Request: fold
Amino acid sequence: MGDSHARDCAEKISNYLGNIYEVTGYVHPSSGFKVITNSAKKEITNMTKRDVVIVCGGANNINKNESIKALKSVIQFVQNRSNTNMIIMNAPHRYDLEETSCVNKEI
Reply:
């Protein structure tokens, strides 16, 4: 699950893993971390230690000077999901901005 940076990731992971695993993607373009993590709470509740959730986001929070909000959302999300495995990706660079932009430096 993630913001626009996660687009097509579920398909690529599914193609790589084959039919052995079920892969589902949740993409919320231009969304902050709270929206991303709230979107699939019901589905994640039913997951077990045999499942993995990959979360990619945060660049939009950083763009809005809300890095602390994103970090708090991540911590809260992970603490409340001890029933399954979590992989939290680093906030991806904003490729629509210059590499030297203050947002990309913060990321």
Q: What stands out?
A: The chain has a mean pLDDT of 86. The first strand starts at residue 52 and ends at 55.
